[in-house]
Amino acid sequence: MIDAWNRGVWGPYMRATARWPALRSIVPFVPLVVLWWAVARAEVFPRVFFPGPTDVVAAFFSLTYKGILPEYLSDSVTRLAVGAAVGIAIGIPLGLLVGLSKRAHSALWPVLLFFQAIGDIAWLPILLIWFGFGLTTMTFVIVYTVLFPIVLNTVLGVRSIPLDLHRAALSLGASKVRVVWEVVLPGALPNIMTGLRNGLGYGWRALIAAEIIVGTSGIGFMMFDARRAGSVVEIMLGMVLLGLLWYIVDAWVLAPIERATGQRWGLVQRQ
Amino acid sequence: MRSLASAALFTLPLLVLVVAWELAVRVFEVSPRVFPDVFSVGGAAVESIADGTLFAHVLASMTRVVVGTLIALLVAIPMGIAMGVSPGVSSFFTPIFRFFSVLAGIAWIPIATLWFGYGFGAIVFVIFNAVFFVVAYNTLLGVSSIPMPLRYAAASLGTRPWQMLWEVLLPGALPNIVTGIRTGLGFAWRGLIAAEMIATNVGLGYMLFVARDFYRTEVIVFGMIVIGVIWLLIDRLLLVPLERATMERWGMVRAA
């Protein structure tokens, strides 16, 4: 039995994935979707509560046709992109400052740790009082969320650069600016990338929460609006889209960059 | 003595921040509906501690986190190890778990409230999800990153399956498991606050969100401080020591 399985199914699968690695991230979802379809089809749970994949695909096409989905999707992605850009623009210089200057470190580090602990979503109520239900509130939350992982990781990266490298560059006559630009920044880059990746992961979740609670547009809003109407199909569609989007961003954009910086500038030593 | 001095050095910037906050509120005459002064936050603290509401909210939130996390760990760690043992199986399951660990937490709130109704069940489900997928994924990674020669060596020395699990696979994966728990709890904590704002009538998130309806900024700010302090305590007193201990004891880190 196991032997037949190995020879008939598993073996060919392993050979196929060895040849086309892209299969490795697609094929595993096939049995999952089939299982989902079977459970929904057998109506183990009431159909309204647990729609099948075909319903979700149908909802995808009808919402795309109505033009709601593309608009919400681009809203969410734009918010995340703007938030990430602002977060990076503030986070990296701040991280460099705190990492390089002892005084800034002892003055700001506890404050940073504390504000990082408060967490993005806890800010929502007071932001709603300040800015009302709108874009400012959401942007603030995302920037806040993206900022801290970047700052903390940049500081970590800057501090992990061996002092010898600093001194070597300085004694070879490099100016302070050049040391920052050519020693500190590249040395901290792997950590900065890790921070960016974590930050975007948290920012993504914060965006969903903000859209659910603030609720004007976006995928999170679509899901919660569907919840109010009791339409599980649209909620599931939202979840699948969120997962897919992040999967694409993470696996095809962030992970390769991280790998590249890690190999290029990281202090990884070949053995 | 030295640790006392460093603790003082650590709290000094926070004290400066509090003083600056009070000064700013006074000088600019900020309306209490926009931002409270230090003393009214203190008043809100004393009031909510005296009438027991703070305790009730914290207790409710902590119960949810503990229940959700424990269930998740009990399921996730055995599952992660089982999937990680064979390289083929683990590479098959990796994308699925990666996909679901992205959805961890907040994205489950709408459907959880629909399936379980508003209340305890939905929130515990959200926390379970946040912790489960991240921990299972990390356990899987941890087990599959144990060098095969180690396992062959153990097997050829006559290790029984049970011993293999207990003395090779679990310790080897432990640093990854702990990292997973730390990340998962971070997601769970955020998910908890968000879920409590939406789906319940007791808990820290609810406390903040109700205060917003009445423009009681002093309660909101106090709640934010409580949330921050609890998370700092969990992180510093539980997660960081745990991580450090497992890293030193079982990690592949060698003393330089």
Order of helices and strands of chain B: HHHHHHHHHH
Distance between the termini of chain A: 43 Å
List segments of chain A where confidence is low: pLDDT < 50 over at least 5 consecutive residues: 266-271
The rough form of chain B would be described as elongated
Helix count from the secondary structure assignment of chain A: 11
**How much is the average pLDDT of chain A?**
82
The biggest beta sheet of chain A is recorded as: none
- Helical fraction of chain B equals over 70%
Unreliable sequence segments of chain B: none
* Major beta sheet summary of chain B: none
Beta-strand portion of chain A reads under 5%
The overall strand count of chain B is 0
The radius of gyration of chain B is 23 Å
Task: Give the class of chain A from helix and strand content and strand pairing.
Answer: mainly alpha
**Average pLDDT for all residues of chain B:** 84
Radius of gyration of chain A: 24 Å
* Secondary-structure content class of chain B: mainly alpha
- Number of DSSP strands of chain A? 0
Q: Determine the N-to-C terminus distance of chain B.
A: 29 Å
With helices defined by DSSP (H or I, 4 residues minimum), what is the helix count of chain B? Answer: 10
